[in-house]
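tool_log.txt
---
The assistant was asked to compare two proteins side by side. It first ran the structure predictor on the initial sequence, then on the second. Raw inputs and outputs are pasted verbatim so the downstream comparison step can read them without reformatting.
(1)
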Amino acid sequence: MKFRPCIDIHNGKVKQIVGGSLKDAGDQARENFVAEQDAGFYAELYKEAGLKGGHVILLNGKDSEYYEATRVQAIKALKAYPKGLQIGGGVCPGNAAEYLEAGASHVIVTSYVFKDGGLSWENLQKMEEAVGTEHLVLDLSCRKKDDQYFIVTDRWQKFTDVPVTLDTMKELGSHCAEFLVHAVDVEGKANGIETELAGLLSGYTDRPVTYAGGVGSMEDLELLRKYGKDRLDVTVVLGTLLGAGAAVLNFFLMALSVQRAAESMKGVTVPPEPLDENGDPDPDAPPQPPVPEVQRAKRWMQLSYTGRMLLLVGVAIVALTAPCFHPVAAALALLFPRLVIFLRGFVKPKNKEA
């Protein structure tokens, strides 16, 4: 099971919404989280973390006044992480090439192929001709009706008569590179996964399948691993945003602390350490009197370190206890910068000969 990051864009903002609440009328949706940073920022974070195969999803229809702002954000993300992200939302043969040229590895399609309540083989063929099977992801996002899962389109608002079954997936598998399946009824709620749907999807093994929806705890991940038989990838959004934001803030505060300490030392002369006749520190020399400016700089750096560690502990507690955040994703984003710094200590720079 692999983690797939996700950048959902609605009304020109990166956000997480409750899937079933999305309405074209008035561009409305119930929001769990609205980011201050743009989509390019999060694409850069995923790139630095080495997380590939994530999804950029446009959640506004083409008739929306916000569509262009949402599309601009999506293009920013693709350009920030070339070949690292897939894109979906209003994709058709007319714009698919633009998204691939902007940096998308794949385009994700639902409404263009599952049209007027059914499956349009003609439109599927057009998509294959436009981008190639190797760049096409079919979105089988679904909701339950009459004890069966059916594919939903138009930003999850319209039911089709196409059921999500192994037969459907086998029939479509030769026409795409991957499947993406949002469990729409639990999407964005972080209240538990659709175990029945995960079990159904686990029976298909011919193409990669990514499940999205309802993951809010480690227990949910274990359930997904169990019912998905470790064959399904999973999208993660909010935990990554929380951890990445805390990591960026931590390094920003550290930089401010170093800057302040350095400024406080301007013009200060520190007496040299006494040396013996061999040029080594002299253990018998009397201790040097403390320099007040140095002492203040050290105290400031220690205070800064303590405060930043408390911040990270607070973030970890929120990630573990708040149901809307994913603790694993938060930990990955939070610890990644520190892990890189740690590993760099084992890499010896090559000596350059003059």
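(2)
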Amino acid sequence: MSHQASPPTPQAALARLGPVRQLGYVVEDLNAAVAAWQHQLGIGPWTILSGITLQCAFEGQASQPRIDIALAYRGEMQIELIQQHNDAPSPYLQHREHRQFGLHHTAFLSSDIDADVAALQAAGLTLACDIRMPMSGRYVYFRSPVAGEHSYIEVLEATAMMRQMFASGMARAQDWQGPAEPLHLSLAWPLKLAMGVERLLRRQSTSHGPKQSIG
């Protein structure tokens, strides 16, 4: 007599993703938040990417939220600060409208995002937002399985560009000497962002030592 395999638990599905690699925060004022993280928490250096228009489906509805983000690193953890500027439906807009500023999501890197997304769905997690960006990959938000929580779980496609960005950012953080003016890049998805990130990575690789592997 054959027995069907039991569906995976959320814990088992998340375990296959490895450690948390990013903490994301929705903020009211990106520049003020970057200054606070630098001067009060001692985290930097920061890179600010502005003018990003996401191509996503939020709760099944096509949407184009326009956001600015800031990125920094502590060890192997990436810190992401997010400010949304339009009213397009998104996971960030809800937090802004309800003034739920602070921790928004925990994120994992995925080398097989389609399989990992399917595994999380099979485990009963609810897919909230699916972002698919030409030339830069796929990013998927799931609602937290913890009752009453308003945060998300994000799966980031570990493209070659994503891995290089992590490695370069981690190297910059090791060399950081304290508060400094953030590096600003004004970008328009998809082509300009890809070109801008590649330019940033080239600049980082020429001004720092060997990159760290992110596994």
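---
observation on (2): The CA atoms of residues 137 and 203 lie 22 Å apart. The mean pLDDT is 87.
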